[in-house]
Specification:
It holds the Pfam family Biotin_lipoyl. Keywords: Acyltransferase, Lipoyl, Pyruvate, Transferase. Its cofactor is (R)-lipoate. One of its GO terms (molecular function) is dihydrolipoyllysine-residue acetyltransferase activity. This is Acetyltransferase component of pyruvate dehydrogenase complex. This protein is an alpha+beta fold. Helices cover about 25% and strands about 25% of the residues. The protein is built from twelve helices and 26 strands. Strands 17-26-25-24-20-23 form a six-stranded mixed β-sheet. It has a four-stranded antiparallel β-sheet with strand order 1-8-6-3. A four-stranded antiparallel β-sheet has the order 5-4-2-7, with no helix packed on it. Strand 4 and strand 5 form a beta hairpin. It is elongated. The relative contact order is 0.08.
Amino acid sequence: MAEVINMPRLSDTMEEGVVAQWLKKKGDKVEEGDILAEIETDKATMEFESFYEGTLLHIGIQEGETAPVDTLLAIIGEEGEDISDLINGGGSSDKKEEKSSDDKKEESKENASDEDDSEESGDGEIPEGVEIITMPRLSDTMEEGTVATWIKKEGDKVEEGDILAEIETDKATMEFESFYEGTLLKIGIQEGETAKVDSLLAIIGPEGTDVSGISKDGGKKKSSEKSEKKEDKAAEKQKEVAATEEKPGTTSESKDGGRIFASPLAKKMAEEKGIDLSKVDGSGENGRIVKKDIESYKPSEKPAEQSKGTAGSEEQRASVQPYVPAGEESFEEVKNSQMRKVIAKRLGESKFKAPHYYLTIEVDMQNAMASRKQINEMPDVKVSFNDMVIKASAMALRKHPQVNSQWSEDSMKMAKHIHMGVAVAVDEGLVVPVLKFADQMSMTQIGGNVKNLAGKARNKKLQPQEMEGSTFTVSNLGMFGIVEFTSIINQPNSAILSVGAIVEKPVVKNGQIVVGNTMKLTLACDHRTVDGATGAAFLQTLKTYMENPVTMLA
């Protein structure tokens, strides 16, 4: 009997997930314990194992698609088994109960009943062989997606595995593959348009099938709406063609102007290595460029073709270039990614709700520089100035617990543990991995853990628990030459420390002007929990530790 597998809840805060990669394909044999897919949240990508054995009969969420927890993910059963009822109706309520987690049994049962009711109350059934494809949910914060490019057009033949479109999520622009074969009967969301998750994206089925009565929610429309749809269909198709022709630079092109098919990982590797994808021969299906093609690529030396047209080039250089008036106004509109929207929302809430104020102190780094040099001369030891700041901050928090606090309407909670958040910039935005019990770590342990967490962050391999529970945050832009800056507090923390660059400049010591090295530290405080005197006392203790690193070893 077929087993229904739903989108799992991989953390206590997860509401939806993205299928980053299917490791099994429709029709593959599956053993208990096999990895079915890699599922991505906005925090990490995790492997999802099968607890059943049989044949993978149906994939409900395609690679790159986002779907809420408990959405139909896959169906495993006996080869050739009829699963049409499970696909169209989402399975019976009994099946839903078996596959959901214990604490969600009743909820899943109610959802299944709702789905059955909606099917019964519909005006009709979806034509046989027709597949409804909806806008996927590709991260737990994604509420809408944008169709960057349609690779297929209405009326095109579609094979299983063909790229249908490129969809922009809050993480990246991902290629969306078809797991069905047939004819692309309808496109529900045009290029450049943004739509809510689960909106009708496309319909695939037998050529000539009438799908004009299928509405955006996948149901049937009234007969009057059907006729209107038929009349507008030709005009809509013409608009799609025009939009595709006018859309510049949305896909990579090969030497002959055709589109380059490459996996997201291959694209990323090529970008990092500076490889032109148009010069790489793909070994994947239909010439698709995959990881091994990038790894084995060796650039060939090609003679420069500059001898031709030398006289013409000279004439072009001598010709007068068109005059562009100074002050010409122009804009380039860039759609906000979902990650940028989330960052804007959360930091906006912090800035507007928490009354920020800022305290800045200048630290003499002469002893810190000498101590770091001596420490790093030891074998297998590497300590950065940022590691020293984290250690000093953790020890200062131990002496000033009110800075290590959280505000709520009814009470102020002062944490007895010290979990240091370390802001890390990634291509898509900003993440804050957490060092648990940082005050108990040595500087070398802090350095190793920060390096490990930062690497995971850049590779999107951080686990949700590695970014939860911070009580204080450090943000360092000194490596970019920033001398001084202010940060927005990472809620629910009460403070965040901004670390600037070490600057060589004249300083006064013992009445003499000498060359010194200083660093500015700025503490942003939530005035609801941290008063000015409390913040100032914390900075004084922090300064003492930084100017006398030997005290941190006690």
